[in-house]
Design goal:
Blueprint: H1 2-43, H2 48-73, H3 77-87, H4 105-121, H5 134-151, E1 184-192, E2 202-203, E3 209-212, E4 216-223, E5 229-233, E6 239-240, E7 242-244, E8 247-253, E9 258-264, E10 267-268, E11 272-277, E12 283-288, E13 292-295, E14 302-310, E15 315-326, E16 333-340, E17 343-346, E18 349-357, E19 368-377, E20 382-384, E21 388-392, H6 418-430, H7 437-459, H8 480-485, H9 505-513, H10 527-548, H11 552-572, H12 589-592, H13 617-632, H14 639-656, H15 662-677, H16 683-696, H17 713-722
């Protein structure tokens, strides 16, 4: 009886696992179904897309639960036995023998042992497996919150509102004939943007239109009876609509602002605005490099270009025009190239991040690069950026052509051989991978020898006669201390003439001329120039050290620094002389002052009359009329002519300034119509018209005003007593 009970234990464990697993899968499917049911409950079938989405979620949840049920049902007692072997080491990996028929005595004994152990453990009464349920309960909580949120959303949030029909008003139409005369039943206004915008045709919602430049506007009007329809633009001659099977149509493209009316059998409608959205030119914004960039010695001959190109409807083409200038003076040569830009982004907004290699453009030291960006949009827009300059520094050019130098030129021609060392080092680095290691080390050592020879030549100008005293910190040769401390010239290694007459000029000057082997007393340079030259020698020493140790890449920065310092030394030795020219003698002021004849000088008595014309007289009169109307609330039928003239001045300003104040002009037309009909004037139209006319007037010029001083009682009493 022990073996069947053990098998029952395995079956109970399997049943517990399957139930727990199916419960988690059911909760997951239930969470998705809650969201779908909430959508159907809130909007039902009013929104077909949402209803279809809800049914798709329900179907997916049911299918998910069925598939998971089938996969859990495949769990057998063999899986449970293997799980118990991993969970309980006391079973000695022999739980599977309970499900098999023993073949020999050993298996039978082991089966009995496992049965006894299993009955002692009672795994069915313990937690033999663990399931990750936190993610499931979190998903269920989020689904509940989402469902509650959907249920409390307004039902009309996702419904499509019905398009309102366009209404056209006829303020001058007689009321008595409204039933018998022809009426407009419907108006459809279709706007077809031009091709360069990339937009599709769309319907206007109001008769006040705001369209793209060059767009085609089509009016389709249906009337209750046959009628004569005309469109009047900017009070020009009206144009008739074309009659068709579905009504009357009129189509035209527009490039300027205006006001239009629709005439029905001679009756004018209210004025409606037609604003034009102009096509803007592309905008170019360059963030790198700066307008002027100089590449110094040792820096990479590359320039990073970062820019952004934007346009309202899209950019058709963009490129860079680069001009390379080589040479100097009258021998300058220019070469222009068109460089393609690496554009990233959409057609309306491009970003540029590109590196210009100046060596690929054929530039060398002393050359200049001028470049600018240009872009075209899909219409007629064109934009060109500012010109940017990039120059590579050249240290071989002496900037003075006509100058008077000092009598002694301490800068010999071999001052420029440091540049040749730099060229040899860069060439060695380029060929490093293609030559053997032994040849590389030999060439690096030879360049180091050239650097040493150049350093020794420069050292002579600082009084360095010993190689041991040359270096970054200088030094004193061995035996030089005794040479400086001795007061006599015996044993110092030099020939010193002895003078019979110690009072002769030669004998007196001899101690002061004995400076050829004293570094600190060298007088060829000034102290500042001397310090720069010492710095150059220190950089040469560092470069030589790395060249001798076969590290030319590390020596290159020191070589550039040495060349730059030598250039500064060369420029500091220039001497400037003021230019000479003619200088006028000083005037004899006491003899010539106040001696002029004044009998030929006549006072100016010419008179000129200037007639000042007041600007915008009708606008000023209309503002005065508005001020009076606010106080009295009365008007006369003749006031319509005053507003008509002021409206013409406002129309001229509106049409000449990108359609500004078109809405205010429409309000002025409504006021004129109401005055002619004797109706009550629109309050909002009065405010808009007054504001537009006030902005139209030029600013008042400031006139001098008398200054009023405020004095204290003490000051006033003092002024009276002084009188």
């Amino acid at each position: 009886m022990a073996l069947p009970e053990s098998i029952h234990i395995l079956q109970r464990i399997r049943r517990q696992y399957v139930q727990a697993k199916l419960w988690l899968y059911a909760l997951q499917a239930l969470a998705a179904m809650l969201v779908a049911v909430a959508i159907l409950w809130r909007w039902q079938f009013g929104a077909p897309l949402l209803a279809l989405t809800a049914f798709a979620i329900l179907s997916t949840a049911v299918l998910y639960f069925i598939l998971r049920w089938r996969s859990v049902s495949e769990v057998s007692l063999q899986h449970v036995a293997r799980h118990l072997n991993r969970q309980y080491p006391q079973l000695e990996d022999s739980t599977e023998l309970l499900l098999q028929q023993p073949q020999n005595l050993l298996q039978k004994l082991q089966q009995q042992r496992v049965t006894a152990t299993l009955q002692e453990l009672h795994p069915d009464q313990q937690q033999t497996f663990t399931l990750r349920s936190s993610a499931t309960y979190t998903f269920l909580a989020l689904a509940l919150l989402l469902s509650v949120g959907i249920l409390y959303l307004p039902a009309a949030a996702l419904t499509t509102p019905e398009a309102e029909s366009i209404q056209v008003e006829f303020p001058e139409a007689p009321v008595a004939a409204a039933d018998t005369a022809a009426q407009i039943q419907s108006i459809d206004i279709t706007i077809t943007p031009p091709r360069y915008t990339g937009k599709q045709a769309y319907q206007a919602k109001t008769p006040n239109l705001r369209v793209e430049e060059g767009a085609t506007v089509t009016w389709r009007i249906r009337t209750s009876k046959p009628a004569l329809l005309q469109l009047e633009l900017n009070e020009q001659s009206p144009q008739a609509f074309k009659k068709g099977q579905e009504g009357y149509t009129f189509s035209r493209s527009f490039t300027e602002h205006g006001l239009y009316t629709i005439n029905l059998n001679g009756q004018k409608s209210a004025f409606y605005t037609l604003e034009i959205i102009p096509d803007e030119a592309p905008a170019i914004q360059i963030s790198k490099p700066k307008e002027y960039t100089e590449i110094r010695l040792g820096e990479q001959q590359r320039v990073t270009l970062q820019a952004s190109l934007t346009d309202d409807y899209g950019i058709r083409e963009a490129n860079m025009i680069a001009t390379v200038a080589k040479g100097s003076g009258e021998a300058v040569k220019f070469r222009e190239e068109k460089i393609k830009l690496n554009l990233s982004g959409n057609s309306r907004s491009y970003s540029i991040n590109q590196t210009l290699d100046l060596q690929q453009l054929g530039m060398s030291f002393g050359d200049e690069l001028y470049f600018y960006l240009q872009a075209w949009d899909n219409h007629r827009g064109y934009t060109r950026s500012e010109t940017y300059f990039v120059q590579i520094e050249d240290t071989t050019i002496v900037e003075a052509d006509f100058d008077m130098t000092a009598g002694v030129n301490p800068v010999p021609e071999y001052f420029r051989s440091q540049r040749q060392i730099i060229i040899d080092t860069e060439k060695l680095l380029k060929e490093q991978k293609s030559i053997p290691r032994a040849e590389f080390e030999e060439r690096s050592n030879n360049i180091g020898v050239d650097q040493k020879l150049l350093r020794l030549r420069y050292g002579k100008f600082l009084g360095e006669e010993f190689e041991s005293g040359i270096g970054p910190g200088g030094g004193i040769p061995e035996g030089a201390e005794e040479h400086e401390e001795e007061t006599h010239f015996e044993g110092d290694g030099h020939d010193h003439p002895e003078f019979e007459n110690q009072n002769s000029p030669e004998a007196l000057l001899d101690p002061y001329l004995h400076k050829h082997d004293m570094e600190e007393a060298a007088t060829l340079f000034e102290p500042t120039v001397k310090a720069k030259l010492k710095g150059a020698l220190a950089q040469m020493w560092e470069a030589e050290l790395r060249l001798r140790t076969h590290k030319p890449k590390e020596a290159l920065p020191f070589e550039y620094k040495a060349l730059r310092m030598l250039k500064d030394v060369q420029q500091s030795q220039r001497a400037y002389v003021a230019k000479t020219g003619f200088e006028a003698p000083p005037l004899k002021e006491p003899e010539l002052r106040l001696t002029g004849e004044l009998h030929k000088i006549t006072p100016l008595n010419e008179q000129q009359s200037i007639n000042q014309q007041q600007e915008l007289p009708n606008t000023r009169a209309a503002l005065n009329w508005l001020a009076k109307y606010k106080q009295s609330g009365k008007y006369k039928p003749a006031d319509a002519q005053l507003l008509e003239k002021a409206g013409q001045e406002l129309a001229e300003h509106a049409l000449g300034n990108s359609g500004k104040n078109l809405r205010a002009l429409q309000d002025v037309r409504q006021l004129i119509t109401e005055i002619s009909a004797g109706k009550k004037l629109c309050a909002s139209c009065l405010i808009a018209a007054e504001q537009a006319w006030a902005e139209l007037l030029p600013p008042v010029k400031q006139t001098p005003q008398p200054r009023q001083a405020v004095r204290s009682r003490l000051a006033e009493e003092y002024r009276k007593r002084m009188r």
